[in-house]
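Hi everyone, sorry if this is the wrong subforum. Our group has a chain we'd like a structural model of before ordering constructs, and none of us has done structure prediction before. Sequence below.
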Amino acid sequence: MKIKINLLIALLFIVQIAVAQEAPYFKSYDWEATPNYKIDEGNTEDMIAVKEKTVTEFYFQGEDLVEFYLEHKVLWLNSDDAIEEYNKIYLPFSSEAELQVNKARVITPDGKLIDLDQSKILTAEDEETGNTYKYFALEGITKGSFIEYMYVVKRRPSYTGKKFYIQDAYNKDKVEFDLFSPSNLLFKFKSYNNLPNVQRDTLSAEKNHYKLHVDKVQKLENEYQAPYNASRGFIVYKIGKNIDNMDVDIISYSNIAKNLYTSYYPEYSEKTKGLLNIFIKELALPKNADEESIIRKLDFYIKSTVYSQDTYNEDLEDLDLILKTQVANETGVIKLYIAVLRTLNITHELVLTTDRNETKFDPEFEATNFLTEFLLYFPASKKYLSPNASGTRYGFPLPYVTDNYGLFLKEGVVGDQKTVTGRIAYIEPVKVEKVLDIMNVTIDFNKENLTENTVHLDRAFSGYYAMNIQPFMHLIQGEDARNDLVDSFVESMTYEFEVLNRELINADAELFGVKPLQIKVDFTTEGFVEKAGRKYLFKLGDLIGQQIELYQEKERVLPLEGQFHRGYQRSLTLHIPKGYKITNLDDININNSYVKDGKELFFFKSSYQLKGNTLTVAANEYYKENIIEVSMYEEYRTVINSAADFNKIVLLLEAE
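Answer:
Right subforum, don't worry. Here is the predicted structure as C-alpha cells:
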C-alpha cells in the first residue's frame, strides 16, 4: 500500500537554483550496431543474462523534476521454457509515463540480426483492472538465440525509497546500475544480501553519478517456503539532501510520522463527530464492555459492512462520505478505524512495516519501501489488528507482517498541542498457545466385522487455524452447508465414512479469538482397516491426515519461513478387539526436536500407553519459531518429516 508523502515533496521543491544541465544520459547511449555476444561452448543453462544495464536519472525540466528510466538487457535463451517466458517483453507503460526509446532485436545462433518492427510493439488491456500495457512481441527465437531490448521511459520520479533487484534465478555475466541526479540532490544507498556497496563517481562534476557494476552475479533459485525476494541481492535508494536548500535528511521517519499524523489523525468537525456517534451506536456495544470486546466488535463490524476498494479516489478517503456510504479504499478504512478508536478513547498505535517474505524491515535505513503494510497496535493487550486484511481479525494480523520490525506511531499531547512520536520496535508473532489444532479421537471395532470402525472425532481449532472459517460462519447458512463443513474434516482422514452424529460448537463469527471452533462427529468407516489373512492392519497414521514431507536433494541455501507459530495436540484412543494384540507398538514412538539456548523451538513427539485393551497414543507437534535459518534447517526437516513418518504408521493386529 502506497503512503502519501506530500510533506516530503514540499520539502524537496523549495527553490531549485537554475543551473546548466547536461543532456540526459540516455541521449548519448545506444546498443552496439554489430553485436558479438558469446556464451561458453557446452553451457547447459536455460538462460543467461549477458548484460543487464539499468540507468535511472532524475532531471529537472524547467521547475519539474522527472525521472528517465533506461533498461537495456541481452539475454541468451537456451530452452523452450525460457523462450516461452521471454518472447514477450512488457514495458513499464502508464498513462502518466512517456516512452522515449523502445527497440528490440533477436540475434540467432548463426549471428543473424532480426530487428523488431515497430508494428510488433503491441498494446493490450488487462480485463480485470482495465490497465493498459505495452509489450514487445519477439519472433524468430530459437534455442541459443540472444534477445536484446532497450527502452527509456519518462515518468514521475520515485525517490522516497526504491528497491532494485540485482540477483535473479538465472546467472548474469554483467550487471550495471547507474543513478544520476542534479548536483544539488544527493542520494543514499544500501546494499543487501552480500552485494557490494554503491559507489559515487567523484569524477562527475555536472551531475551526481552513483553506480554499482558487478561481474558474474550468481543465480539464486527459489526453495520451499523461502523468503525468496527478501533473500535476493538488492539495493535500496532514496533521496538524501537538497544541498541548495537545507543540509538535513529529507526522507526521515520523523518527517513521515508528522505527515501520516496529519492525514490519519485530523481534528474532526462537529458534523464528523455526529456521524461517528451514529456509527458507534450501530455497533451495538454491550454495556460495560471491556476494551478487547469493543475492539473485536469494531473489527468484525467494519470488515463485515464496509466495502473496501483497492483504488485511489479522494471520495473513498473522505471520512464523512465513508460514514454515510460505508464504502472506502484502504486509506479510508484506516481513517475509519482510527476515528472510532479515538472517539472511544481506546489507546492504540499506528504501525507501518513490510511483508517479511518480500522485504525485511530495516531498522537502520529509513525509506518508504519499508512502510508498505499497516497495523494497529493496542498496548493494553499487546495485540495487533490488520485493518486492510478482510480475512484477518483482532489479535491475529497477517502472519507475514509479524516477526518483523516496524515503525510505531503514537498520538500524544504536549501542553495544549497534539503530537506524534515514532519508535522502531519488533512486532512479536502470536504465541503458539493461541494457535492450536487439538484432536481427540476414539476408535472402536465392530465385533462382527473387524474391518469396520466406529470413530468419535472431537477437534478444536484456535487462532490462525480457525481464521479461514470461524470469522465467516455468518456466511455459511443452512444445515447442509454446515454439515458439509463438518464432513470435510472427516474427509481429511478417510473418504469412506457414514456419519451418525454431527455437532458444530462455537460457530458464531464473533467468537473468533474468544473460543475455539469445535466439531464433534461420530461416523463409521472401513477406511482404516485392511485384512491380511488372519491379521488386520490398522492405519493409525491416517487419523492425523496426510502430512507434508520435505525432501532435500541439494544442500539448503535459503532460510525457511513459516507463517505463524503453531501447535498440534493429538490424543488417539484405540479399543483393541478382544482376543487380539498389537505386535508393533514400538513403531509409535517418535521423538525429534530442536533445542536452541535451552529452549525447545520445535518438536514432534509420539508415544503410547497400553492399559488392558485400551491403547492411548499421544502425537504432539509444536513450532515455536517462524524463521528457520539454514544452520537449523536439517533439524526442522527432521521434525516435519516425523509427522509424515507417523502418518505412515500401520498397526498390526494379531490373534493372541
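For your construct planning: The longest strand covers residues 47-61. Confidence is low (pLDDT under 50) at residues 5-15.
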